[in-house]
Each structure stands twice: as structure tokens, then as C-alpha cells.
Amino acid sequence: MMKRDSLGLLSCLPLMLLMFGPGSSCNSTKASKNSKDNANQPMTVNSVKTKSPDLKGTWGAQGISMEVTDNGANLGYDCAHGSITEKIILDGQGHFSATGRHVRDHPGPLRSDEDQNGQRATYTGSVNGDTMNLTVTLSDSHETVGTYTLTHGRSGRIHRCG
Fold this sequence. Notes:
162 residues; alpha+beta; eight-stranded antiparallel beta barrel; globular
């Protein structure tokens, strides 16, 4: 009798392994699907996707104020103003480079024959949290207009030419 019960138990063992073994749960189907979905994704130390910081809004410091929009930015400096004419996109390390214009201002009213288009400029920098390091360089002459450290949510303190 004992032999027959053992034989019956042994014949049921493969069936039990199929029912309760790895890969039989509902979660394994989701895990298999997720592993297939992520098969072409590169593995990183932190595989959690991090959201790029929202740059929109006011950034400021002594001598500069910057208003970032979805399409670029408008800047005001001591005796100058400028614009970034393309969306500011950060790379994986928080660095960016964008093109735009830089216009030198002067005391007094604008003359009708003055060029208000300014010069082509490159705006490069990096963002770390609420701090942005920004360098403004004139594209044609490679002259650095200035390097600034701006804070998100802070108004700039600008002195107009006078």
C-alpha cells in the first residue's frame, strides 16, 4: 500500500511543479512582457528614468534676468538685452548650448536708424537644481559677453544704461 501511494505522489510531482513552480503566477506574465519591452533598453546603474528639470520661469542674479519659455528665453543685462531663439535642452549631465541674439543698449532714446537685431550669440551653460551657470558668447567674434550664476525663481537686479 505504501509503495502505491509513493508511486501516486511521484506521478503528481511534475504536475505540482508546473502549477506552483516559477513562471506559473500571473506576475510572471507581466514580468516577461516587461523584460521584452525593455530588451532593447540600455542598462544603467540607475535604471529609473529621471525627469528633466523644468527650466521655465524666472532666473536671476546681479546684472542679469532671464525668463525661460517653452521656445527659448528673453534676457536683460546691465546695458544690454538678448534672446535665446530655440528651446533650451539639457543633456544627461545638465549642460546646454543654444543660439540667439545679443543687443548692446546705450543711454538715451533709440535712433530710428539703429540696428536692433544685435549680434548672433551662443548661450552655453549647465543647470544643477535651482542654479544655472550661463556664459554668453558672441558667435562672430567669439567675445565672451559675460558668465553668470542665476537662481531659479529669483528676479535679476539690472542697472539700465543711464
